[in-house]
Write a structure and sequence with these properties.
The protein is of the alpha+beta class. The chain has helices at residues 68-82, 84-88, 94-112, 166-173, 179-185, 190-204, 215-234; strands at residues 3-9, 12-17, 21-26, 32-38, 44-46, 53-59, 62-63, 66-67, 119-125, 134-141, 144-151, 158-163, 247-252, 256-261. α5 runs antiparallel to α6 (190-204).
């Protein structure tokens, strides 16, 4: 599983994920369980090197035999070759990149002839000559595609979380993700259930942050959220499916895409020429 979080404030965007990757096995009775959990998966990417656009993923960790990390980097090379002139002059459009990424990934899924449960992406950053960041959400759910759809368009401060969202939802929204279904199971109508859920969110949601929150404070908060999920996962029944190093990046209009924390499988001093590896 995954916890992936993005926060928007006036000065930019903060993206953070854990590093867990779960291999699921199915027994003779059709029951799924975690066969292996690895803690070094990459889930955040600078989608165009040197420019203010990033990508974050959750859900299935591969398409066919290729990891999502490899596929995202394949797209980065593909998109650059097709748009060299625009990119070299810093002319990027987040919506255009999101649509191209959707078409590229859809083709990869079809070529692999493999089944997927869910692969989600957030593509976010600054388009040329736009002062506000843009965030587009894209999901491949079995044979359906949702998006890319722009989110948080009118919110100067906003936070969205993906993957295993139970703990974050309880902390920030004040209720479990299972609350709507529990209310319906108790015999309440859809209308009444929705009314109660809305009431809980309105009165229980934590008032977090302000548009003028400095980037460093947004970094501290998002790091806390991801770490909170990692620590809670240690004490939940079953395998720890959220954990490992936290990868965290910031996207701002003038400083572009910057890593705050990033794991490497090699030593920097031995790979000076590849420190911004593709």
């Amino acid at each position: 599983m995954t916890i992936a979080v993005i926060m928007q404030v006036n000065d930019g965007l903060v993206l953070a994920t854990d590093s867990a990757s779960t291999i699921v096995a199915t027994d003779a009775n059709g029951n799924n369980s975690a066969a292996h959990v690895y803690f070094n998966a990459d889930k955040i990417f600078n989608l165009i090197k040197g420019l203010p656009v990033g990508c974050m993923t959750w859900g299935n960790g591969s398409i066919g035999n290729a990891s999502i990390s490899t596929i995202v980097k394949d797209f980065r090379n593909y998109y650059y070759e097709k748009n060299k002139s625009e990119i070299d002059n810093g002319r990027i459009e987040i919506e255009k990149i999101s649509q191209s990424f959707k078409d590229f990934t859809e083709k990869k899924i079809k070529d692999a002839n493999g089944s997927i449960d869910l692969i989600g992406f957030v593509i976010a950053g600054y388009s040329k000559d736009k002062s506000d960041p843009e965030i587009f959400q894209l999901e491949f759910i079995k044979d359906r595609i949702r998006g890319p759809k722009q989110i948080n368009k009118k919110d100067p401060v906003a936070i969205s979380w993906y993957g295993d969202i139970e703990m974050t939802s309880r902390l920030i929204l004040g209720m479990s993700t299972r609350m709507p279904q529990l209310l319906k199971d108790a015999g309440l109508s859809n209308e009444k259930s929705n009314e109660i859920v809305h009431l809980i969110q309105k009165n229980m949601q934590l008032p977090i942050g302000a548009p003028a929150m400095p980037i460093q404070d947004a970094i501290d908060f998002i790091e806390f959220l991801v770490n909170f999920n990692c620590e809670m996962s240690k004490f939940m029944p079953g395998a720890q499916t959220i954990g490992g190093p936290i990868d965290l990046a910031v996207i701002t209009k003038h400083e572009s895409f910057k890593w705050v924390y990033r794991k490497y499988y090699y030593e920097e001093k031995l790979n000076r020429g590849n420190i911004n590896d593709k």
